[in-house]
Structures are given as structure tokens and as C-alpha cells.
Automatic annotation (TrEMBL), chains A, B:
<dbReference type="GO" id="GO:0046872">
    <property type="term" value="F:metal ion binding"/>
</dbReference>
<dbReference type="Pfam" id="PF02073">
    <property type="entry name" value="Peptidase_M29"/>
</dbReference>
<keyword id="KW-0479">Metal-binding</keyword>
<protein>
    <submittedName>
        <fullName>Leucyl aminopeptidase (Aminopeptidase t)</fullName>
    </submittedName>
</protein>
<keyword id="KW-0645">Protease</keyword>
<dbReference type="GO" id="GO:0004177">
    <property type="term" value="F:aminopeptidase activity"/>
</dbReference>
<dbReference type="InterPro" id="IPR035097">
    <property type="entry name" value="M29_N-terminal"/>
</dbReference>
<keyword id="KW-0031">Aminopeptidase</keyword>
<dbReference type="InterPro" id="IPR052170">
    <property type="entry name" value="M29_Exopeptidase"/>
</dbReference>
<dbReference type="GO" id="GO:0006508">
    <property type="term" value="P:proteolysis"/>
</dbReference>
<dbReference type="InterPro" id="IPR000787">
    <property type="entry name" value="Peptidase_M29"/>
</dbReference>
<keyword id="KW-0378">Hydrolase</keyword>
<comment type="similarity">
    <text>Belongs to the peptidase M29 family.</text>
</comment>
<keyword id="KW-0482">Metalloprotease</keyword>
<dbReference type="GO" id="GO:0008237">
    <property type="term" value="F:metallopeptidase activity"/>
</dbReference>
Length: 365, 365
């Protein structure tokens, strides 16, 4: 086994999930994640955790979903499993990113509704989501398998404690600030309020309210956006490639939108419900181990020199007691490259220019 | 997908496990059983069952067990999963039958003790165990992959309702009988009591107290054996090949034993506890779809023209209210070929001679 697989497992179990002896842990293994599952099991054995391993096969899901009459129920056994779990480790990494492409949307939605109590029980645990590099994901990224593996481990095997310290600076700025302004070139100038909201130092650990490995972003839940914003990083929405999204906000809501391609998929998202036209997240990517876009939001949104906004649901972690965040059935991240001709201001102070932060060499205020 | 995989899934879900809409089902998938898992998921979707899929990977287990300090605990989440399940479908079929060969025996035993409540919860469900044909199992059987697949489907895809009817005749004979005598050649002449015991018509369905697919045997829980018996079908005990076991019983217990090879492994079994020297099972193989020995007890003991005895634990299903069966930590089946020079008598009547039953052509009473 590549030693990096073991290092990945160690970061996941110790830094991210903080597993201790006696913890009841569910490990969810995607079809292509066997090798990481073996390394994680070894680490969980060392820590003395109690483990149930589930098989998160897209092909199994597809067969089940397509055969079902859509009168889905919540499985009491599944609910009991997660209600009694301390942690859930999701080991992604499938063999075909389109494995469930022919499951009808109505079926997915019906299944998701029935699974809502299970989802909530999972989210109440110390869950962490990561991926094992597979050939399928390499293909999605447009990379060779070998190069993709290096890419993943560069992103995952960081000095997380050091990055957490750096990100704490940005969290402090956002926690204390009232208004963020994002400016880029001629097309993007967006102001949004963050007054009363709490930023998350997403350092890839449940100890930081952070549930993705890799992570490396600071995010908060903005509201009342005014202005326009362009997202130049392509994304995939329900299998449709979407490029160059432009959103115009007035009165806190999207009043105009366009996309160079995939505009229908974008329109579907924005029409989901009322909250889908409002903002749910502002995130600032700070993981410099990620050096390219790979058509995977888990990585893309964490990349240094990027900023992302999500329409839809806000995360509870950004909402102090008494603050109600935006609610929606969707949460769709859109990313913009801020390495050039860009700045972020908080209450009028520049806190990032062309990707460079105030505490970094070369910063121009 | 080979249509036989779908047929296998259908027999498992409908005939064996009797799954109905709303049932909470756990599907346990071995490393090599993905294809069968997909077919089973499709069938469970059609039936409207609620499914949790677990990953029964030997390599994951090995890594976990070897890393653990042996202070195992029962996972509350795992217990909750099975206590809330209606059915558990075990889809065997690994990639290496020796994948856990280097897990120390003490570790296995400690883990098994901690898992005892989980095992009991699983056994309280309508569980069924089957295997998907893998290259590893073909290798164990000494067969090509293609030939092994045919072998498995010949054994599994029976007319089970018809076989259940035939086996009901043997069950009736055993239920009404008091003493069984097994005679073969010069070396085997064993008498044992079955008075007060109930035979199981093991027709590969929970509706018949039968939990293996394939099955095709009638078994009961004999006691007070007297005489000698030789088992000419080789078996594997904890990785050791054991051949030509000979047991001599006096006063209901093994008083002498030998084996042409693997005698130490046999000795270990018999020394486990007091019950390990008494009988737990007498089974009569009646599945004529199984035409060769493949070093897998799931198949070998069901083969037509064979009889097996087990030392150790008796099955509860053979014990009417008030009957206490033999108790032991082990249950080890040993098989003898009765196609020639053999007969089974019940209370003095020949009920099988040279593999032929009274209701078959060519029977000689």
C-alpha cells in the first residue's frame, strides 16, 4: 500500500474525526475506496473504535432506486444505526461519476425525502467526508491516474494545524466585520451583509465545525446581497456542464441570471424554492495544496486564490443562537478565480487582493 | 449481467428470505459479491424493502483486527442496526479465502466474544446466507471460474418447492423415528437416538427454518451415539486440510479419534469444551444439483448421496419446547459419501441405501 493512503487515513481518523477508544463509528465505503477503507480500518483498530462498514455503491443504489415504486420509507434499522453512531466517515471514490445518471429525478427526490431523518441523524454525528483517488475521479478531472493521486494527496496531507492558525485570521476579520464587498474586473461588484454571522474556520476537522477532508476555506452566511457577480470556474449541475454564470442581486435576491452554457440547469436550481435565489454561503479558499480545478466542488472551492458563493441553504454553524439563516432544499456553490484584478473588502478594508492576504508577502492594501 | 445472477437474487429475496414491502433488510456484501449485490438491490427495490448495505470485506476486517489491542467492545450502533432489522442477507464471495489467515486466534476469539450480542441479534432475524461465485472460490474448489459458476447456479437454481416436498418425506421419517443407524462398508456402524427431536426440512427458506442458499438437506439433533464412523470427504479446519476422520463414540461421547492428515486440528476442535465431543447434528444431503465436493461446507454437506454429522452445538430448530440440545462453542460438520455400500436405517427400516431413497427408482429396501 502507498504510504500516502495510510497518512490519509491517519489525518482522517485523528485530525478530522478525532476518533477515540470506544467511539461507535460508521465507515461508508464507495466502490473504489477499498484501499482507503483498509487503511482507515487499521487506524480505527489502533484507536479502539467500534466499527460498522457500509457499502456505498452507486451501482447498488441505482438498481434499488430504479426498481422501486417511489413509495419510499425510512428504514428503522438505518435510523437506529446512525442515531447510535458517534462518527460517520464517508470514503468517496466511485468507479463512474455517471453511475446513477439514469435514475429519474423524481425517484431521487422521493428517496431523499424518505431518507431525511437518516440524513439528519448522520449530520448530528461527527461526520467527515473525504475521497480516495480513483481512475473515475481522475477522468473527471481530466488527469492521468498517477497525477490525480498526487493532486489528492497534496490537498489532503497538509499541515492542518498551521493552516488552521492562518485561517483563524480570516475568521476573525469576518466575525468582526459587517459588510463584505467582492470586486473583480468590470463584471463583479457585489456587497453583502455578514453582520451577526459567525465564520467557520474550515480546517478539515470536526473540532472546527468542518466536515470535509480536504478543506481549507473560511466561510460564513452572508445576506442581503446587492450587485453583480460572475463565476468563471465551470461546474457540473445534475450532469450538465455550466460555464460563466452571472447573477445580479437586488433586494437580496437574484433578479437576473445568465450562463454561457447550461443556463437551463442553472434556472432549475434558482426555481427550486424561494431560498434558492438568496445567498447561503460566502467562502474564501485558502488551501494552496490545491493548484488546479478538477470539476469536484470538494476540491475546487477550497483552492487558494478562489472565492465561492452558494445560493440556497446556509449552514447552522454560521448562525449564532437567535440568527435564522437562509433556508432552501438546495445549496449550490459557484466559484470565481480571484488571482488577478480582484479584491475582497470587509467594511472598506482590503482583506485580499489578487489572492494575496494582508499577512502574506506581496500584499497591496 | 448474466441472467443467472438475477435468478439467484430472485430465489434469495422471494423464496429464501420472503421479503415483503416495508421490511428492514441488511445486505452484507463480501468483496467479490458486487454483481449479486446489484441484482439483490434491484429485487429489494421491486419488493419495496428498506435496505442498508454493509461491506463485509475480509481485508478491512483483517486490518482492523490486527491493529486492535483485543479489548473489543460491542458497538451500540451495530447492535441497534440488527435489533431493528427484519432480515439479513449475507452475500459471500471473497477474493482470497486466506485473507484473514494472519489474524491471531486469540484476537478472533476476543472479537467474537464482544460481537456475541450482535450475532444473536442477527440470528433473531430472518437471515439467509448465500455466495456469489468468485475466482477465489473457484480456486478453492479446484475448478475453472466458468465451471464453478455453473456449479453454483446448478446448486442454487433448483425447483425448491418440489425439493421441499421430497424432503418432507425424510423429515416425517426422522420426526417419527427413535433411532438412526448409519452403516457404511467395514468401518462405519453408528447408532444414535433422535427420540423427541424435530427434523428440519432445510429447503433454503426461512419459512422452513432454513438459512442457507443453496440448501437441500434434512437435519436433526441426534444424541447418545454408540459405535464408529468414518468421514471420507476432506474438509478444512482453521486453514488445515483434514482427511479421513474416524470417530469412535461410547456413552454418547468421542472416546477415540484419528485422521489421515490434520489430526491436530481435529484434536483442537474436540478439546474446545465438553460439548465438542458430543453430536450436534445429523444431516442427510438431498440436493442433487450439487455433483462434486468443492471444499465448502455450504455446498458439500447438501450434496445428494452424502450424510454429515457435526460435533458440537445443536440447532434450536431441532429442539421442541423442553428439549435441551448439546451445547458447545463449536459446530463442525464432517461428511461421508454414502453412494456405495451404505445404508441408513430408522428404527430398523432402511430409509436410504447407496444414496437411493425409498421413493426413488432403484431403491433396494
Amino acid at each position: 500500500m502507498d504510504p500516502k493512503v495510510r497518512e490519509h487515513a491517519e489525518v482522517l481518523v485523528d485530525w478530522s474525526a478525532r476518533i477515540e477508544a470506544g467511539d461507535d463509528v460508521v465507515v461508508s465505503v464507495a466502490e473504489g475506496a477499498h484501499e482507503l477503507a483498509v487503511a482507515v480500518a487499521e487506524k480505527l483498530g489502533e484507536r479502539g473504535a467500534n466499527v460498522v462498514t457500509t457499502y456505498a455503491s452507486d451501482e447498488v443504489s441505482r438498481a434499488y432506486l430504479r426498481a422501486h415504486d417511489r413509495a419510499f420509507e425510512t428504514g428503522e434499522h438505518e435510523l437506529a444505526l446512525y442515531e447510535n453512531a458517534d462518527s460517520v466517515l464517508f470514503l468517496g471514490g466511485g468507479r463512474n461519476t455517471f453511475a446513477t445518471a439514469d435514475v429519474p429525478g423524481e425517484t431521487r427526490q422521493a428517496a431523499a425525502r424518505a431518507a431525511e431523518p437518516v440524513r439528519e441523524a448522520r449530520m448530528d454525528t461527527d461526520w467527515v467526508s473525504t475521497v480516495h483517488p480513483t481512475r473515475s475521479l481522475a477522468q473527471q478531472a481530466g488527469m492521468s491516474y498517477e497525477a490525480y493521486r498526487e493532486f489528492v494527496y497534496d490537498a489532503v496531507l497538509r499541515d492542518w494545524a498551521e493552516l488552521a492558525e492562518e485561517m483563524a485570521r480570516m475568521k476573525e476579520i469576518l466575525d468582526e466585520g459587517s459588510e463584505v464587498r467582492l470586486v473583480k474586473g468590470e463584471d463583479t461588484d457585489l456587497r453583502m451583509s455578514i453582520e451577526g454571522r459567525r465564520a467557520v474556520n474550515s480546517a478539515a476537522s470536526v473540532a472546527y465545525d468542518s466536515h470535509n477532508l480536504p478543506s481549507g476555506e473560511v466561510f460564513t452566511a452572508p445576506y442581503d446581497p446587492e450587485g453583480a457577480v460572475c463565476f468563471d470556474v465551470p461546474m457540473t449541475l445534475s450532469g450538465t456542464r455550466v460555464r460563466d454564470v452571472r447573477l445580479t442581486f437586488e433586494g437580496g435576491e437574484v433578479v437576473d441570471f445568465s450562463a454561457a452554457s447550461g443556463e437551463d440547469a442553472l434556472s432549475d436550481v434558482l426555481d427550486t424554492d424561494e431560498g434558492a435565489r438568496r445567498l447561503g454561503e460566502l467562502g474564501i479558499g485558502m488551501n494552496r495544496g490545491i493548484d488546479r480545478f478538477t470539476d469536484s466542488v470538494l476540491f475546487d472551492e477550497k483552492m487558494g486564490d478562489t472565492v465561492h458563493l452558494a445560493v440556497g441553504r446556509a449552514y447552522d454553524a454560521c448562525l449564532p443562537e437567535g440568527e435564522a439563516g437562509n433556508d432552501s432544499a438546495v445549496h449550490v456553490d459557484m466559484i470565481t478565480d480571484v488571482s488577478e484584478d480582484s479584491r475582497i473588502e470587509v467594511d472598506g478594508d482590503v482583506v485580499q487582493r489578487n489572492g494575496v492576504f494582508p499577512w502574506e508577502d506581496g500584499f497591496e492594501g
